[in-house]
Write a structure and sequence with these properties.
The chain is α/β, with parallel strands linked by helices. Helices cover about 35% and strands about 25% of the residues. The chain has a six-stranded mixed β-sheet, with helices on both faces. A three-stranded antiparallel β-sheet has the order 2-1-4, covered by helices on one side.
């Protein structure tokens, strides 16, 4: 991202201690700018998913605060894509995507149009009447993304959505996600364990330490968009991956100070 951009939200000193005494997060400071694509990268159990859940309001911070710059922030301003598609097997694709609107009491005409747009955006217009059992793993995740987008959120939170998919499908969905991000202009926070995925997708990578998780470094990925297979096989991509891998190794060893 070139030039200064306004923040959409800021985490200040966020900590999370679970009821069993586990300290998941401690002193997390992070600002997210409007329209950017940010990846949270760190080892398993470092609290990446917990950060997303706190931002989404699905969990409460034990300390610190999440400050939205726009005081008119509403629950529907956040879309969440979980690690698993979590689709209702007895409902069609259309009904699965429509669920957030039904829960919000949106009228039928507006809901139908919103579902149509969301399915079009993920390339599933022809599968509105299909059931989850008839879909591939990648298609199920597309339905999950459409469901997150159907409320027209300002912020899209994605918790390792492609981790369980095969490499070919994952690469394809990475490309489709970047195209969708460019088309919609939404802010995305993407959790991943993969250095390679984070470099390919992101404008900025936020590195977190092992538990208790904290932000220990941020790295800018200045490669231009659109990104494609030429970037994935380029020397620039390899160089960014090496830098991020080295920083992650330092974070894991505690060599980076917050």
């Amino acid at each position: 991202m070139t030039g200064p951009a306004s923040a959409i939200l800021t985490l200040r000193g966020v900590g999370k201690t679970f009821d069993n005494g586990t300290v998941a997060l401690r002193g997390v400071d992070l600002s997210i700018r409007e329209g950017e694509f940010v990846s949270l990268l760190g080892p398993s159990g470092c609290g990446k998913s917990t950060v997303l859940r706190i931002i989404a309001g699905l969990a409460r911070a034990s300390e610190g605060s999440v400050e939205w710059v726009d005081r008119k922030h509403k629950t529907g301003d956040v879309g969440f894509v979980f690690q698993e598609p979590t689709l209702m097997p007895w409902a069609t694709v259309e009904r699965n995507v429509r669920l957030p609107l039904d829960l919000a009491g949106v009228d039928d005409k507006r809901a139908s149009e919103a579902v149509r747009k969301a399915l079009t955006s993920v390339g599933l217009s022809d599968f509105a009447r299909a059931y989850p059992r008839e879909l591939s793993g990648g298609m199920k995740m597309r339905v999950s993304i459409a469901r997150a987008l159907v409320t027209d959120p300002r912020l899209l939170l994605m918790d390792e959505p492609f981790a369980a998919l095969d490499e070919i499908t994952r690469f394809k969905l990475n490309n489709d996600l970047l195209a969708l991000w460019h088309m919609l202009g939404r802010t995305v926070i993407f959790v991943t364990h993969s250095v390679f995925e984070s470099v390919y997708l992101s404008q900025r990578i936020v590195l977190m330490t092992p538990r208790p998780g904290r932000v220990c470094a941020e790295l800018a990925i200045d490669a231009p968009y659109p990104r494609d297979e030429r970037f994935r096989t380029s020397a620039d991509y390899a160089g960014y991956c090496r830098r991020v891998s080295e920083a992650l190794e330092k974070a894991m060893s505690g060599a980076i100070d917050a």
